[in-house]
Amino acid sequence: MRGAATAGHQCSCCRTLVPVNSFARMFRENTVSSVMPLTVKPANYAKLLEQQEKFDAAFEKEFYIEHTKYVETGVLSERLEEMFDHIRQRPDMFRMEMDDHPLPYLTAECTACRALVTTYLTYRRVLGWDRDRIAQQAASTCQTLNILTPANCEKIVIKNIDILLYIIDNRPSLTAQTMCGIIFQSGTCVLEDPTFLDWTINVSGGGRPITASKTGPNRAADDMKIIHITDVHYDPHYRTGYNAVCGEPCCCREGQGIPADPANGAGEWGDYRDCDSPWKAVEDAVRAAARQHPDAAYVYYTGDIIDHGVWETTVAGNIVSMTRTYQLFRDVFPGKQVFPVLGNHENNPTNVFAPSYIDRQDFSASWLYDFSADQWTGWLPAATQQTVRQGGYYTALVRPGFRIIGMNNNDAYTFNWWILYDPAYLRAQLQWLHDTLLQAEAAGEKVHILAHIPIGAGTSYRTWARQYRRILDRFWDVITAHFHGHTHADEFNVFYSLSNPQHAISVGFNGGGTVPFSNYNPNYVVYYVNQQNYQVSDFESWYFSLTEANQNPARNPIWMQLYSFNRDFQLSNVSPASLDTLVRRFASNPAELRRYWEFKVKRGDPFLAAGCNGDCLLNHLCQIVTNEANDDSKCNALAAIFRNLDDELFSEDDTDY
């Protein structure tokens, strides 16, 4: 087993590596408020990575030794406390999607993963620890690392321990390096196991050759409108005035009490500070979208109804929240088709979507698929029932020539533990997607793809993303747009051909989210879609200021247009070719890129107060063009342009993020 150590052998190199480790130094020299995302790797990254690999290998060995002593004696040594401090969670880690974690955070998280997984694998496989002992010790580690409160650490461990032990016990060759490589896909958490790297799907020949970036139509008077709502994150435990600065991943909740300082209390319509949405805010957002756009033809909902209180979700509670939310959509959009997909929070435990052949009731997601099939029956054709009940995905012919595919790509989310058990089980849905697109192509249909997790994002399992890109290369002329959620950011992604990377072939539009978690204003998006080829020609975002709404709690929020994309960026259309040109414009025009960033964060007051300096802007730019974890080719090309600008964007003293 990688990194295993035997008691009695001291790893002296760790003591010298910790103080001089470059990533660790970066980690400690930045305060939480000033740390910026570092998607763009520094010029000396390869050298830093080599140093970090030596550091992590030594760290995980010594951590096992020190932790074993602690378990045996009950005495927490000064050295172990120092090591815990190095990997301890920072308060803002939970409010950022993993893609936005700065390099020092990702490095510390990878170090922690390797050390902890190596230690607990040894306890289970070598020392024969039973379930209860591992659960008790894991809860203690969770508490020590400030992940949750002691009581909630116990809850989150109990929710996940049986699944993890089942996987570990039935996959004896699974190593810490592989487990952490799947979860983080960065730094020294590199995936090396061919079992997880080499699986493929069958992609048919044919299709139109990719000879140029894909163009599209300009907006026309007869374009149809589609409303995109996502990530409502309804919290039934939200209480106005309750603690919004609770120190947990999700605040403003009934059990967290009323703070002594009223300024730390939850707002009437939601709160910027790590809080989900009260029901009145969920209802207001959906009704505002319907009221403002009664002429919309369809509604897309791209997942995440359930709150972020992941330590205490239940099947029964999730069913209540989802039932209430789906009923709201039925009431507000009567007679209108709503096309929903599942979010990673819908299952219990959160993020975990087992293969269909796992028949243990406490592991299976079949309850969620059956529930969804029943709830969606009024919106979707009867023919969708089989695949929804099988895996939470479907296809529907909306009108002649126009098809929607609703994916459940939560199975490819890197925090889905079942990838560790059998990565190839992800093939089934991808092969179904390919075969469905093949049939659509033969029928002359164009396709919109809905998926909760942005395809190709850093938390999208890299091998899965690579296989998806093969499908997209084959059916780029059939797939006319992608629609995502999950990040809560109002953003877009440009997909480039895997075989001809100079050509932009598709776009992923993100609906942002009606939840403010964290620091965002609520929003929804409206698309204008050409009725001949079903490409998006333009889109606009609608939002309200959470600050203003909470200052006027007695009346409903005032919804305003945040932007109209073609107008605000002087575009003729939002085709892949047009947005590829815009991205290159961003690289040479920081003012335009900053404007995009303001729209992306939906002018959330905390974001605007903190600002976004050159490195921050460059990272947001790179996120647009990254189609696969660790594929930096497009990012590097844009960075070369951006960093040559003669301005003060990259001032060493700038503490924006």
Mean pLDDT: 91
Strand numbers in spatial order across the main sheet = 3-2-1-10-11-12
Strand content: 5-15%
Structural class: alpha/beta
Q: How many E-type strands? A: 12
**Relevant CATH superfamily of the largest domain:** Metallo-dependent phosphatases
Q: Work out the helix count.
A: 23
Protein name: Sphingomyelin phosphodiesterase
Binding site for Zn(2+) 1: 231, 233, 304, 488
Disulfide bonds: 110-189, 142-153, 246-251, 252-275, 612-616
Function: Converts sphingomyelin to ceramide.
Can you walk me through this structure?
Disulfide bonds join 110-189, 142-153, 246-251, 252-275, 612-616. Its cofactor is Zn(2+). Keywords: Disulfide bond, Glycoprotein, Glycosidase, Hydrolase, Metal-binding, Secreted, Signal, Zinc. Pfam families: ASMase_C, Metallophos. Belongs to the acid sphingomyelinase family. This protein has 657 residues and is an alpha/beta fold. It folds into 2 domains: 34-196, no CATH class; 224-238 and 276-645, Metallo-dependent phosphatases (Purple Acid Phosphatase, chain A, domain 2). Helices cover 41% and strands 10% of the residues. The protein is built from 23 helices and 12 strands. The protein has helices spanning 12-20, 22-29, 45-73, 78-87, 103-125, 131-144, 150-170, 176-184, 194-197, 279-292, 315-332, 366-375, 385-391, 418-421, 427-442, 462-475, 546-551, 565-568, 576-588, 590-600, 605-610, 614-625, 633-642, and strands at residues 224-229, 298-301, 338-340, 394-399, 402-406, 446-450, 479-484, 492-496, 504-510, 523-529, 536-543, 560-564. A 6-stranded mixed beta sheet has the order 3-2-1-10-11-12. The chain has a 6-stranded mixed beta sheet with strand order 4-5-6-7-9-8, sandwiched between helices. A hairpin with a 7-residue loop joins β8 and β9 (504-510). Residues 1-38 and 652-657 have low confidence and may be disordered.
